[in-house]
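Task 17 of the worksheet. Students: predict the tertiary structure of the chain below and write it out as structure tokens. Keep your answer in the requested format; marks are given for formatting as well as content.
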Amino acid sequence: MTTDAQDTTDSGAHPLFTEALTTLGLDELHHHIRRFPEATRTAAEAAAALGCELSEICKSLIFAADGVPVLVLMDGASRVDVELVRRELGATKVTRARADVVRETTGYAIGGVPPFGHRTRTRVLADRSLLAHATVWAAAGTPYTVFPMEPEALIAHAGATLVDVRETAATDEPGEPVA
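Model answer:
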């Protein structure tokens, strides 16, 4: 399986993500996946391509908590406060996971990691800021594809714990990867 935009599905979503949608009974989402001609590896690029607010993008970010991968779902306009993640998990140290760890853990490359449908089961934290919108957009397994979902449903399908791990002085970080 490839983690690039090369795939065999009509929607353009990554095959692993397509399989997850079927497993979760979310086949109708295939019709709502948006495919872009250019990669949207950052939240700002995805928001610009969709014509939505930056905060309507759901970033899927992998961190290492004492060496164990953890997924944090965060709105696109905010940054994760790793100290709050560390406290939430009771970890000694939390850092951004390396690209190879992200791919090994999720099955996807950075810039295309969806909020669910990963290769391995990881702990998932979802920041409460996602609930500010009726719909959020998340990566569908590639930097070229996104899908819309109600935040409550997205959090439930990801098996996430709802937390407050957003930096309090949140700023627009257009260069931060979507995943």
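Marker's comment: Residues 39 and 144 are 5 Å apart (CA to CA). The mean pLDDT is 89.
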